Each structure stands twice: as C-alpha cells, then as structure tokens.
TrEMBL record:
A Pfam family that the UniProt record links to this protein: Dpoe2NT
Alphabetical UniProt keywords: Membrane, Transmembrane, Transmembrane helix
Superkingdom in the source lineage: Eukaryota
InterPro entries to which the protein is assigned, alphabetical: DNA_pol_e_bsu_N (IPR024639)
Protein name: KRAB
Taxonomic source organism: Acanthosepion pharaonis
Domain DNA polymerase epsilon subunit B N-terminal: start-end pairs: 2-72
Transmembrane intervals: 114-138
Length: 156
C-alpha cells in the first residue's frame, strides 16, 4: 500500500512538472497514510493546486513548502487534523469520518462521536458509583454533625 501511494504521489507530481524532495515526500506520505484511501487522491490534487498557486519559479518542492501546502489543505478542508496516539505507538487520523479511539469503529461526520456506547455507559456507571459513595459519605457526616456540635459545645 505504501509503495503504491508513493508511486502515485511521485507520478502525479511529475505529470505536473514538480519534484518532491525526499523529506517532503516522506512528510506528505505520512500525512496521506493517516487519511482514508478514498481521500488520498483528493488530498494530493488539492495540495498540488495549492503548490501551483504559489508564486515560485522552482519546480522542486522542499519540506517547508510541502508542509505549508499540506497545512493549508488541512485547514481549508475543514477536517482539522486530529492525531491521537493509540496505545502510545500508532497514530491515526480522524478525518471526514471519526473513529472510536478504543475500538476503531467509524462514525459519520455528523455524529462527532469519539467513544462507543459501551465505553460511555461504563464511564457513566463508574461516575454513578463515585456519586453514591460521595452521597453516603455526606449522609454519614450529616448524621454525625449534631453529635460533633454537642461535643464541641460541651467542651466550652
């Protein structure tokens, strides 16, 4: 998959008369790998369009120029790159469709849910237990309060 994407990227840039530096290519490939497959070619075309709008006579695209174009695409597309480290190792991108960061299930953009219902329910249940414990402690304290007040009054 990565080799096909690299070939597609190189060929697309070559047909438009642009050449990516190795650093720019690796940066752009990392960005593209975090996108869903059906959005990758759209992203390449949009970044190419941004690069061609820039006033520069150079056909070589260095890392800084590529990074600026990718960030402009990311801001204009409305997806706002959100990268999450999953398990401290792998990064994935929430784009157009959002994924649960625990199980990986996809949600449509309209729902904007990041957690599955079971995780939300388990979190709610734990919160409910903490609330019960807190209320029990409050109840215990309020039942002891008259005795503590009497003890304090008697010690005066």
């Amino acid at each position: 998959m990565a080799d096909e994407l690299k070939t597609q990227l190189t060929d697309t840039f070559a047909t438009h008369g642009l050449t990516l530096s190795s650093e720019a290519e690796s940066y752009f490939l990392e960005f593209l790998e975090n996108l869903k497959e059906d959005h990758q070619s759209e992203c390449i075309d949009a970044v190419l369009e941004i690069l061609q709008k820039q006033d520069t006579s150079s056909t070589d695209v260095d890392h800084d120029r590529c990074m600026a174009a990718v960030q402009e695409y990311d801001a204009d597309s409305g997806t706002e790159s959100i990268k999450i480290k999953k398990g401290g190792i792998k990064k994935f991108r929430l784009s157009k469709q959002y994924s649960c960061e625990i199980c990986g299930k996809n949600y449509s953009r309209a729902t904007r849910q990041f957690y599955c219902i079971p995780q939300i329910l388990s979190f709610s249940f734990i919160s409910f237990l903490y609330l019960l414990v807190g209320l029990q402690l409050l109840n215990t304290f309020t039942s002891l309060l008259p005795g503590l007040c009497l003890l304090a009054f008697c010690s005066l």
